[in-house]
Amino acid sequence: GGAHDTDEGLTDFGREAVKRCFELGIVPDLSHASDKMIYEVIEMSGKAGKPCIATHSNSRAVCDHKRDLTDDQFKAIVSLGGIVGISLAPMHLTGNWREKCTVDDIVDHIEHYVSIGGENAVCLGCDFDGVGSLPEGISDVTDLPKIADRMRERGLGQYADRLFHSK
User: Fold this and answer.
1) Which of 42, 96, 123, 125 has the fewest CB atoms in 10 Å of its CB?
2) In this predicted model, what pLDDT tens digit does every residue of 5-18 receive, in sequence order?
3) Which helix (H) or strand (E) holds 124?
4) Inter-residue contact 140 to 128 (CB < 8 Å)
5) Who's near 45: CB < 8 A, 6+ residues apart?
6) Contact of 111 with 156, CB cutoff 8 Å
7) What residues have CB less than 8 Å from 36, skipping those under 6 apart?
8) How far apart are CA 139 and CA 108, in angstroms?
9) Per the confidence metrics, is the pTM higher than 0.85?
């Protein structure tokens, strides 16, 4: 199907592949997909009674990047029992690879998703192996607790504990 930078939806083969995924218990990942493809897979997921996910897709309401999800897309994924992982790619957090990107930018996306009903569906989809740079203060998985700390500082402690399975 179509990538995020196209207006293309699923091909005939793509529709068959998605159906087969459902039959095999494989959950389709919508990260990198075009808006049209996302809506087609969401519709297929609903008809099949199966979830779909976006393993590393941020909020387009926070950062207007075509790789990020609209609120409607996010809510539809959540309504189907899916999850959405926050990408640490600065371009998807702030819209600019060169702009200073911080842990606060990460928390902005988490906070927005929580505010629209994603408290049980938002997770981390860091994409450490797929990004050229990371937000300031994050160099690898050992720095992820900084996200939880910042969430607590911003009044999102209950969600930080849920996200990081900590107390």
Assistant:
1) 96
2) 889 999 999 999 99
3) strand 122-124
4) yes
5) 22, 28, 51, 52, 80, 82
6) yes
7) 2, 7, 8, 9
8) 19
9) yes
**Burial class (CB within 10 angstroms; exposed 0-12, middle 13-18, buried 19+) of 56:** buried
- The count of residues in the chain is 167
Burial class (CB in 10 A: 0-12, 13-18, 19+), 1: buried
What are 19's two structure tokens?
A: 């159906």
Q: 137 is written with which tokens? A: 């203060």
| pLDDT tens, residue by residue, 56-81 | 999 999 999 999 999 999 999 999 99
Which secondary-structure segment (H or E) carries 84? strand 84-86
Q: Interior CA angle at 111 toward 155 and 143, to 5°?
A: 80
